[in-house]
Write a structure and sequence with these properties.
Layout: E1 6-10, H1 15-26, E2 30-35, H2 39-43, E3 49-52, H3 58-68, E4 73-76, H4 92-122, E5 129-134, H5 147-167, E6 172-179, H6 185-190, H7 196-203, H8 213-223, E7 235-238
Parallel strand pairs: 1-2, 1-4, 2-3, 4-5, 5-6, 6-7
Helix pairs in contact: 1-8, 3-4, 4-5
Protein name: SDR family NAD(P)-dependent oxidoreductase
InterPro entries: KR_dom, NAD(P)-bd_dom_sf, SDR_fam
Domain Ketoreductase: 5-195
Length: 245
């Protein structure tokens, strides 16, 4: 049996974050969920640990990492999806909010965790480090009204490649998972199954369904696993073929 790793998952109290945590826990890893609210309650059934964390606060991240201890796998799942607006109407302050969480927050988490991974290797710890970012196929396929979010995810893809090329010498792999629409409770509340909006989204997907949270989690676990040991700098679509249309 491989040694259990410590996996830190931001945005861990949401539907996708919880599914990722459950998948890593099932694989025998030690799971730490981080979120603004609800992380402790979400982590308990998984046998994990929950912490409150604002990923845009550098001092808070450092304090949280002191509490958590060495991290083997970082999953940057936290992000804002709820702010939308067309190019001519979206307030500039709203775009900055999106970028602050989705891009700057992902950057800070990656930088601060990777620094500690490098320090551990310098001190003789030989295990490789892994970072998996949550992106979106929207970074490559635009949808009117969602450009602020989609621009942030295009930046996450670029950040993934940047981190991958610079951290490879330290044996840290960095990849991203890019889902299409995912059937989370939040999405179901916004566009219930059978609604025109829901049906319009599904019509764009050759596979004929939205991704389940477990589909996304399986891709994250794969990219973090030894089976993906020679994969870095990629953004893996989990979209049922939507990018083909």
């Amino acid at each position: 049996m491989p040694a259990a790793r410590t996996v830190l998952i931001t945005g861990g109290a949401g539907g996708i974050g919880r599914a990722i945590g459950a998948a890593f826990a099932q694989a025998g890893d030690s799971v730490v969920l981080a979120d603004l609210d609800g992380a402790e309650e979400t982590a308990k059934p998984l046998g994990g640990h929950g912490i409150r964390l604002d990923i845009t606060d550098e001092a808070a991240i450092s304090a949280a990492l002191d509490e958590v201890g060495p991290v083997d796998v970082l999953v940057n799942n936290a992000g804002l999806l709820s702010i939308h607006g067309r190019l001519l109407e979206l307030p500039g302050a709203d775009l900055l909010r999106i970028l602050s969480t989705n891009v700057h927050g992902t950057f800070l988490m990656t930088q601060l965790v990777a620094r500690r991974m490098v320090e551990r290797r310098t001190a003789g710890h030989s295990a490789p480090g892994v970072v998996v970012n949550l992106s979106s196929i929207g970074g490559r396929q635009p949808t009117p009204g969602m450009g602020g979010y989609e621009s942030s995810k295009a930046a996450v893809d670029a950040l993934t490649r940047w981190a991958a090329i610079e951290l490879a010498e330290h044996q840290i792999r960095v990849n991203a998972v890019a889902p299409g629409p995912v059937a989370t409770p939040m999405l179901a509340a916004a566009m219930p199954p059978g609604s025109p909006a829901h049906d319009a989204w599904v019509a764009r997907i050759p596979d004929g369904r939205m991704a389940a949270v477990e589909d996304v989690a399986a891709a994250v676990v794969f990219l973090a696993s030894p089976a993906a040991a020679h994969i870095t700098g990629t953004s893996l679509p989990v979209d049922g073929g939507q990018l083909l249309t």
